[in-house]
Specification:
With about 325 residues, this protein is an alpha/beta fold. Helices cover about 45% and strands about 15% of the residues. The protein is globular and about 60 Å long. It binds 1,3-dihydroxyacetonephosphate and iron/sulfur cluster. The site of iron/sulfur cluster (SF4) has 13 residues, from helix 5 and helix 10.
C-alpha cells in the first residue's frame, strides 16, 4: 500500500496523483535517478523534477550529473542529446512519442543533400533536431546561445542554419550574417496571432510584449524583449515593469509566476481558439505524472542512439558546451 504524504502539494488533485508523486520520489532515490524537466512541462512535473531549465541548461545539467538514470521530462531530441552526452547511462523518457515539429521538419536524407550542395558552408543546427542531423553538423546551438555561436564562426565562412527559419531570420538581423536557412518551423510558436496580440495589448496598454525567437518575424517585430525560455524568465524578474504578454509555450507561466508572484503575466493568444486560449505544445504535454512513474518503475521507454551516429553527434554538442561555459 502506497502512503500518500503529498495530498497538499499544489497541482495534485487526486489521491492517485499524490500516491504517484510519493512513489516517484521513492523510486528516484532507490534507483539513483535524476529527473530533468523543461519549462514547458506540466506544473506537477516541474514540481517533482530535480532540475527545470531551458534546452541549454538541461544539456549542461545532463553533462554533469552523477545519477545512474536520467529521466528526461521533455521531448525526444532533448533526451537523445542527454544520451549522446552520457552513452553509458540509462536515459528514459515518459513518452517516446513526445517529438517536436522542428525536429520533424528536417529529415536527415533531405538535409544531407542540402548540405552536400553547399560543401563550403559551416553547419550550425538548433538543438531541436534529431541525432542524425546533429551528426551532420559542425556546431549545435540553443536559443540562449545562438547569437554567440554564429559570431564564433569566422566572418568569411558561409553558414547553413537549420532547422528553424524564424530563429535563423532573427539571427540574420542580430548578427548581420547571411545565413542559408532550412525551411523548418515550430508549430507552437507559429500559432500566435498578431491581430489577437495587438487587440490584447490595446486592452492592456501597460503590458510589455515578450517573445521566444521561434516566433514569426511579424511577432518578433513588436516584441520589447526576445529570448530563450530562461532569458524570458530572467527578463521578467529583472524588469521594473509589472505586466507582460508572454509569447511562448504556456507551460513557462508556472515557473515565471513563481519568480514574480506580484506581476501580471498574460499568455499570448494563438490564431485558433483552443482550451487554454494560448499556445501549448502537444508533444511536451504528452508527459504525465502517471507516465513519469511508469517509466521510472519500468526503466522504459529507453533512449538509444546508434554508436556511429552518437560518436559524430557528440562533436558539435561538445563544441557548443565548450563555447557556453
Ligand atoms: P528553450 O528552452 O531553449 O528556449 O527552447 C524552447 C523550445 O521550444 C524547446 O523545445
Ligand atoms: Fe518542438 Fe515547438 Fe514543442 Fe519546442 S514547443 S518541442 S520547438 S514543437
Amino acid at each position: 500500500m502506497i502512503k500518500a504524504t503529498n495530498k497538499n502539494i499544489e497541482y495534485i488533485e487526486t489521491v492517485e496523483e499524490a500516491e504517484l508523486y510519493d512513489e516517484i520520489l521513492k523510486l528516484k532515490k532507490e534507483k539513483n535517478a535524476v529527473i530533468l524537466a523543461h519549462f514547458y512541462q506540466e506544473p506537477v512535473i516541474q514540481k517533482i523534477a530535480d532540475f527545470v531549465g531551458d534546452s541549454l541548461a538541461l544539456s549542461q545539467k545532463a553533462a554533469n550529473t552523477e545519477a545512474e538514470i536520467i529521466v528526461f521530462a521533455g521531448v525526444h531530441f532533448m533526451a537523445e542529446t542527454a544520451k549522446i552526452i552520457n552513452p553509458t547511462k540509462k536515459v528514459i523518457i515518459p513518452d517516446l512519442e513526445a517529438g517536436c515539429s522542428l525536429a520533424e521538419s528536417c529529415p536527415p536524407d533531405a538535409f544531407k543533400i542540402f548540405k552536400d550542395q553547399h560543401p563550403d558552408h559551416t553547419v550550425i543546427t538548433y538543438i531541436n533536431c534529431s541525432a542524425e542531423i546533429k551528426a551532420l553538423s559542425d556546431i549545435v546551438c540553443t536559443s540562449s546561445n545562438a547569437e554567440k555561436i554564429v559570431n564564433s564562426i569566422p566572418k568569411e565562412t558561409p553558414i547553413i542554419f537549420a532547422p528553424d527559419k524564424n530563429l535563423g531570420k532573427y539571427l540574420i538581423d542580430k548578427t548581420g550574417r547571411d545565413l542559408l536557412l532550412w525551411d523548418g518551423v515550430c508549430i507552437v510558436h507559429e500559432a500566435f496571432s498578431i491581430d489577437k496580440i495587438i487587440a490584447l495589448h490595446n486592452k492592456n496598454p501597460e503590458a510589455k510584449f515578450i517573445a521566444h525567437p521561434e516566433s514569426n518575424p511579424e511577432i518578433l517585430k513588436i516584441a520589447s524583449y526576445i529570448g530563450s525560455t530562461s532569458g524570458m524568465i530572467n527578463h521578467v524578474k529583472e524588469s521594473s515593469d509589472t505586466e507582460f504578454i508572454v509569447a511562448t509555450e504556456a507551460g513557462i507561466l508556472y515557473r515565471m509566476q513563481q519568480e514574480v508572484p506580484n506581476k501580471t503575466l498574460i499568455p499570448a493568444p494563438a490564431k485558433e481558439d483552443n482550451t487554454c486560449a494560448c499556445s501549448e505544445c502537444a508533444f511536451m504535454k504528452m508527459n504525465t505524472l502517471k507516465k513519469l512513474y511508469l517509466c521510472l518503475k519500468n526503466e522504459s521507454p529507453e533512449i538509444d542512439v546508434p554508436k556511429e551516429i552518437r560518436e559524430k553527434a557528440i562533436i558539435p554538442i561538445q563544441r557548443m558546451l565548450e563555447l557556453s561555459k
